[in-house]
Amino acid sequence: MSAVRVYVVDDHPVFRDGVRVALENVPDLEIAGESGAGEDALTALAEPDSRVDVVLMDLHLPGCSGVEATRQLNSARRGGPSPRVLVMSASVEDDAVVAALRAGAYGYLDKGASRAELLGAVRCVAAGGAVFSPAVAERLSRYFSALHTVPAGRAFPQLTQREREVLDLIARSYNNRRIARELVLSEKTVRNHISNIFAKLGVQDRIAAMLRAREAGLGE
How far is CA 9 from the centre of its chain? Predict the structure, then answer.
């Protein structure tokens, strides 16, 4: 299996150096490149021969912000899957976290995360999962709890009962294998249900579905 290729976008050279050191001598991870500005990263990642699996993205960048760069990466799929964005920022304010997730980020770590947390998060995001540092997860929980939600029983009437059950587990951050085990289904059946959910909700990925579900009161 080839190593997960990580591209780092941060305007602080010291931070980029730290990430490079953290990934050194890790057999399944490697640095694919780095940029100090969002525009430079978008240009590099748009190259036809670019092969990047995970983009480690700061939010506060000169010029194009990390949120905008994330949004553009997810809208320019170039006929294939776009790199998955893992935000790593000193800011864990509610608005910044939610904006990054809405733009298509797969995870959000604060810059105080340990090396082990960083490596685990990169691997998780590369595999299609979502990951948040404890401080971010706590803020997200409070944020969604404070929303005026639609009662869960009336949410998403376009979904079947089984699809709503699957969506509820997605909102709890369950992966496909755990959903299959919880509902006594095959993983193939779970994938089919998730495809139907995405189509009916008009979303493109798991994070967007999770946000819609949590806003409606599912996953609690």
Answer: 16
